[in-house]
């Protein structure tokens, strides 16, 4: 009689010990980096926190599978000072049956945000080893911002060129009205000597000169 | 006295600023710090300054003197000195043309980065996500986000020079912008160039100064500065140090392109270029040293950040493997704990063997990078870690633009000035065509340069950068200095300078021109040839996207042929033109003799 009582008393914990162990086939390893995330406001990992974890995970499972999960269905084991542990989820109908890994992963994925906020942590500091977080989609603006700046600069440069062209034309017209035919512009007549290999200072043989009135632009 | 019919700088200051803007270019920022690092930090300054005195300043003075005296672009000037050597000017123009083709692509990249700095998160700060949004894209994971942004998003680089894709449209647009702005700067000749250089010459110094202050206040910058200033004197025994110092001075001053001759040709006849030559050379070297102090502060910061990140990753790895509480290992005692854990848990530690990184500050500091890698990858990595990174990014890339545009002005002037003076083209031109020459030159360079915006464009850029100008310039300047010293004659040159300046150049200049510089140049020239022959097949760095890093590949056959073509095309101008002129003269002389005999008979 006494043995039966003992067996009944210890069976759940023995079962639990057998179901939840490191590298359990249907289990997941969780790693929390509380001090890294919260520094001075870090809390200690104790029984209450573990309870919170079990509760949030039960919440996540219930939400995903629409079955009623209880805190006792989440088994936690192998806690380390790192704050990492393994957990498995048992079925509410049959405590010796483990919930399939894929279902647990889907449930965690769905409620990841809620689990993170319960612990004031983020995807990097509350790791479920093996479950990759779905990263937020990058914000894509309607038109790439660089094109806008490019357009502005190009517009300014184009305006500069137009301004230069117009001012040149106006200048030419004004000069023509003032002086008639003499082209008195920037690029003026050029004088060259005959080829004799050396350019003597200041004395040019004008019979070889070539006058080329060049116009502006 | 003939009428002086040439454009002039409005004042000598514009000329000095133009030379400074041209000489102080990207090489001062991305080549000199690398050389400093490779050749023993502060100790490199000794060969550098010595070479400045022995070859830099004398050759600079020489080119300015020729330009100011002849008042023509490079082709006209050399033809005036000796008709057989017009090819020297032509070789300068060809080399400048190659430079113009590929240099503006750097400005296009600067524009691209500049435009992308106007975002809340810099695009090279984080990796983009992969297709199913589970993590960063693989190529970015293996490399770093800054490398990914440069190689994939900016260049969209292909795995090798043989494979080609299409043109990168963003790049092409920025390239177009760069050329439009270049055209705008030169459209009125020295009138517009003279005004632009006030800005392009001075703004980089403002930014460098701001960066100096910022750099010194960065965490870990002192590591970099210490690394730079501890000289390793044993490097001075290595001949490569001296050769690199000589080549750096040579290329940094921009000798041989004809730009200096072109700029000086717009001077007043009696302008005191001797003082200006010394000032500009000193400013150029001073800027190199100044920018390398800034660069080393940035290096120090980047190395420290990487080192601390490495330590942090190691710490997390140890915590996770041994399941220790979080505050048992801090960044400061990582190494002691590693030793401890190795003794207490050897089997578990052995499992870690592959994953444990070797965090070493020295090795982070000694990763020397040069060229586009330094400017676009290392600097942008440092910038993304600074607070207010958008501001620093904008400042930095505007500085790169100013430096690049300033050098570009000199290069394009080196092509346009001789083209204006060159008889053949001006004969066949009409009034309208003459003015439009600048537009045509820019347009042709733009079209040809679009090839650099393709997916394999960066490899072609590297080829042009390494081979397009280096060897030909040495040859050109060597012939220049020998021509002036021996063919034209030092005595005649002295008289010309006395005519311009009012006093003769003293013995220092004469010794350098006649003896030391030609010997140095011959030595460099021989070294290049020997290096080229001994080096075997030329190689280039290709980006391997599966490994996430660059690897050396040999150039394919057409690549090597093209390199040969680049080298031969500019160098061969000199002998070919001499031959051509020789033939022309003989024909002329024969005709002249026939006419003469007829005349005497008639008389």
UniProtKB/TrEMBL annotation, chain B:
Keywords: Glycoprotein, Membrane, Metal-binding, Sodium, Symport, Transmembrane, Transmembrane helix, Transport. One of its GO terms (molecular function) is L-proline transmembrane transporter activity. It is a multi-pass membrane protein. SUPFAM superfamilies: SNF-like. Its main location: membrane. GO terms for biological process: glycine transport; L-proline import across plasma membrane. One of its GO terms (cellular component) is apical plasma membrane. Na(+) binds at residues 23-24, 28, 252, 284, 403, 407. The chain crosses the membrane at residues 12-32, 44-62, 83-105, 165-186, 198-222, 242-266, 278-299, 394-419, 440-461, 467-490, 511-530, 557-583. The keyword Hydrolase does not apply. It is found in: Membrane. Belongs to the sodium:neurotransmitter symporter (SNF) (TC 2.A.22) family. This is Transporter. It comes from Fundulus heteroclitus (Killifish).
